[in-house]
Amino acid sequence: MLKLYNTASRQLEPFSPENPEKVKIYTCGPTVYSSPHLGNFAAYLYWDLLLRVLKAEGMTPYRVLNLTDVGHLSSDADSGEDKLEKGAKREGKTVWEIADFYIEKFKSDFKKLDLLEPEIWARATDYIPASKSLVEKLIDNGYTYETSDGVYFDTSKFPAYADFARLDLEHLKTGARVAFSSEKRNPSDFAVWKFIQPGESHAMRWDFLGRPGYPGWHLECSAIIHETLAEPIDLHAGGIDHIPVHHTNEIAQTFGAYQKPLANFWLHCNFLKINGEKISKSLGNLVTLDDLEKKGFAPADFKLWLYQGHYRSERNFTWNDLAAARSRRRKWLNAYLRQFQQATSSTTASEPSPDFRATLLEKLDDDLNSAAAFAYLDSSLDTLTLADWRLIESLFALDLASADRDTEYTALNQRLTPLLETRNLARKTKDYATADCLRTDLEKQGITFLDKNNITYWQFL
Ligand SMILES: [Zn+2]
């Protein structure tokens, strides 16, 4: 039985969705104003593993992923410039062009990483009517007040506000005394709708409450969930940095508007660091998928590296560790290829071995412990069947045993089998010069021979 760590209870709990045939999942998505980096993708990789484990357990996930193209201000709170406006200025484009461009970039990286497509890609600006209606509900229910720059959620009206993040509101008040000089009633209050001031340039604007404005950043997630999934959903996921503000605010506004909890289960992943440092633009240490590919790594190498650790642990990315993950992946690929070369139609089992499947899933059912699953995989490497490999591929999508690749391997096999036979014959007749020459030629193409248990295989170097 799958157990996950629920942030709401701070406990490992069995995950049992209301309807296993439609498991309602929402994962907070990117703000689409610059190229996504590895730190952004870590979360989507962890949630991809989750979706695949749910499928292996016989459930059918239905997942919504939002794309924030409006309202996310540079301070993450309610001040500063809209990130999309900032991107537009930087690149001399319109905000709409910026959003389109980086949505496409995000989706193409998503595909390269072979992540399961969400059932709904929800772009914030496509949900403006739903966002407005949520604000209206909050106003009607008495949870808001108006200031000169927007409509704010009054967090003192929602007594459970501090519960989710275990916030110390008193401490927040003392800490904020200096900076807290706006018209906000409480430091934790947040804008659900922002007004555009006369003279302020904000290209994305909608008329609402008698003047032009745009939604507050947190609003879209609650609005999209209400519109696409209906609360409470089975599982909501995001980064741990979302706990104290973003998710806390989502919970407050959904309850304020609809008097219902937002989600039954909350999953949060930890940060990814690069060479021991926090990823930040100012440090210039952003690594993208393109950077990785330029250095000769496959997207799946990064996946394998990430899954060697746990989603709740902070991870530290280094190029050396990535190289080690690439070697581990090649070792697995070669083990698969040995099976592939040996297989005939009569030896190709269509189902994975029940013991292997049960043990592998048992590891993953323990709060997605992929590191333990990998250790078990390593220890089973020489006994795995083609069907076992298909199972591994369906869970981790590491580009090992995919149908597309098999076409390539079949072609390689046809080309290499005669060479292999010639080389073995040369060795038998002690014509070592020919045998060596064949090996050297092949190695130039990144392929070599392996003699194991009286069988000769070809494999990748
Ligand atoms: Zn969100």
Could you characterize the architecture of this molecule?
The protein is of the alpha/beta class and 461 residues long. It has 3 domains: 3-269, HUPs (Rossmann fold, 3-Layer(aba) Sandwich); 274-401, no CATH class; 404-460, no CATH class. Helices cover 44% and strands 16% of the residues. The protein has 15 helices and 17 strands. It has helices at residues 38-56, 83-91, 95-112, 128-140, 169-175, 219-228, 243-258, 289-294, 299-307, 319-342, 354-365, 370-380, 386-396, 403-428, 432-444; strands spanning 3-6, 11-14, 23-27, 61-67, 120-123, 144-147, 150-153, 190-195, 206-208, 211-215, 235-239, 266-269, 272-274, 277-278, 315-317, 447-452, 455-460. Strand 6 and strand 7 (150-153) form a beta hairpin. The two termini are 39 Å apart. The model has no long low-confidence stretch (mean pLDDT 92). Bound molecules: zinc ion (ZN). Zinc ion binds next to helix 7.
Record the SSE blueprint.
Layout: E1 3-6, E2 11-14, E3 23-27, H1 38-56, E4 61-67, H2 83-91, H3 95-112, E5 120-123, H4 128-140, E6 144-147, E7 150-153, H5 169-175, E8 190-195, E9 206-208, E10 211-215, H6 219-228, E11 235-239, H7 243-258, E12 266-269, E13 272-274, E14 277-278, H8 289-294, H9 299-307, E15 315-317, H10 319-342, H11 354-365, H12 370-380, H13 386-396, H14 403-428, H15 432-444, E16 447-452, E17 455-460
Parallel strand pairs: 3-4, 3-11, 4-5, 11-12, 13-15
Antiparallel strand pairs: 1-2, 6-7, 7-8, 8-10, 9-10, 13-14, 16-17
Bound molecules: zinc ion (ZN).
Residues 28, 221, 246, 250 line the site of zinc ion.
